[in-house]
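Handout, page 2. Input:
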Amino acid sequence: MAKKRPQTRATRPQPTDGEIPVVGAREPCPCGSGRRYKACHGRAAAHAVTELVHRPFEGLPGECDWVALRELVPAATVELPLKDGLPEGVPSVTLATVLPMAWPALRRDDGSVLLGLQNDTASGDISRDLADTLRRALTAEPGTPVQARRAPADGPRLQDLLDAEGTFEPVVHSGFEFWIPDTENATPEVTASLERANAAAIPTVKLAGVGAAYWCETPEKNHLRWVMPHPEEQLLDALARLHAAGRSSLGEGTRLVGSFRAHGLTVPVWDLPSGVGADDVEKPAAEFAERLAAALASDAPLTPEERRARGGLTNRQVTLS
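Output:
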């Protein structure tokens, strides 16, 4: 019996990984394999979007202030310069800590864009999620919010879209009135959201004399929270040296109580008496910055007292992200 000739099928050109769009996990993979997306190209995409980027704002101007606005400051805005300039019809792009209704972004009626920073993100890279939201906001219809979605795993990051030579100068507000340029025409939902946000906002002031230090007022006591760019281990050693020497306070009645860890940076926190305002700590903070610079420059082994001080600071450290 003659052997049957094996049947051949015309092979279709397969798209490369970069050409395969993101689809639902249970949908057929666009590559044509016949498998579901989650069992095919979705595996690599899922890994990419869940892998945590510990310093998502690294490389951006004002990295410490990005962290502060993301985690510590209730109401603030910053004008963002784009690497390729503003598109036609977009007069400005403004980063905001929070937007009404917790929108990820908003294209205003005049074409300007507001980008929200304190939103939940779908991946482990906040920078990529914000960049995806920003790109969609730039082309959204004026007068419409931008909804959340999962950013493509190979999409750009903020570092790809923003001008690396630009400045990052936060403006801290006492409330969220910057949401609504025309309060008379605001919808009831936005007005109600504004009232709730204003009621919850903690009074906050950015110090002028040092970088990324924010004074805030609470009913019991005031605080200074200072986002610092130094490597964590080196910074903790320096703080321990000052603490053991009794030189870590910001004046009478103030006390270094611990630190936060947020987005790869360390945020020392001081308790302040209720009567101590932002202006009162400007000079002590500048003097502390000089003491800290000297302590950071030391490479001498920690003394037993300094090691105990370091252990106390480490035990009081809280991770925010």
